[in-house]
């Protein structure tokens, strides 16, 4: 599937692949658009023990995250992202990439938008 959707969502991580888009899905009683994607990559080092041997790090299942975006044409937009988890031979699990930080920023974007709207309303009331 074309990754132009990632450009629209301002996600610049090349490890995320969009697999499917569903429109008019009912979530919490409201119509929403849901974008499905996967995040997979090959880590070079373990962030816990810092081993650089890629044979020590194995895929260890996937975890589903739902990331909320700003509303688009009054319809909620969600990204359901399957994140690849890895396990080091030392027994610690992890799944991290730049997109994890990006997903945190994506979650903060709706909150920042709400704060801006509140500031505008307060100015109008004063």
- Low-pLDDT residue intervals, each spanning 5 or more residues: none
Q: What is the percentage of strand-forming residues?
A: 35-45%
Largest sheet: 5 strands, mixed
Q: What average pLDDT do the residues reach?
A: 76
Number of domains: 1
Describe this structure in words.
The protein is of the alpha+beta class. The N and C termini lie far apart (49 Å). It has helices at residues 4-8, 98-125; strands at residues 16-27, 30-39, 57-72, 75-88, 93-94. The chain is built from 2 helices and 5 strands. The radius of gyration is 18 Å and the shape is elongated. Strand 3 (57-72) and strand 4 (75-88) form a beta hairpin. The protein has one domain (4-125). Strands 1, 2, 3, 4 and 5 form a 5-stranded mixed beta sheet that branches. This is Transposase.
Keywords:
alpha+beta; 126 residues
Short description:
By secondary structure, the chain is α+β, with helices and mostly antiparallel strands. It is 26% helix and 43% strand. The protein has 2 helices and 5 strands, in the order αβββββα.
Helix/strand layout:
Blueprint: H1 4-8, E1 16-27, E2 30-39, E3 57-72, E4 75-88, E5 93-94, H2 98-125
Parallel strand pairs: 2-4
Antiparallel strand pairs: 1-2, 3-4, 4-5
Protein name: Transposase
């Amino acid at each position: 599937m074309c990754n132009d959707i990632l450009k629209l969502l301002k996600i610049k991580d090349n490890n995320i692949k969009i697999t499917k888009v569903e429109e008019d899905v009912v979530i919490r009683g409201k119509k929403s658009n849901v974008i499905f994607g996967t995040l997979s990559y090959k880590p070079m080092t373990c962030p816990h023990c810092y081993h650089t041997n890629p044979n020590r790090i194995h895929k260890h299942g996937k975890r589903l995250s739902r990331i909320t975006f700003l509303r688009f044409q009054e319809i909620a937009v969600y990204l359901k992202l399957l994140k690849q988890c890895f396990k080091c031979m030392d027994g610690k699990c992890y799944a991290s990439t730049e997109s994890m930080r990006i997903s945190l920023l994506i979650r903060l974007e709706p909150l920042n938008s709400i704060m801006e709207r509140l500031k505008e309303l307060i100015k109008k009331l004063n």
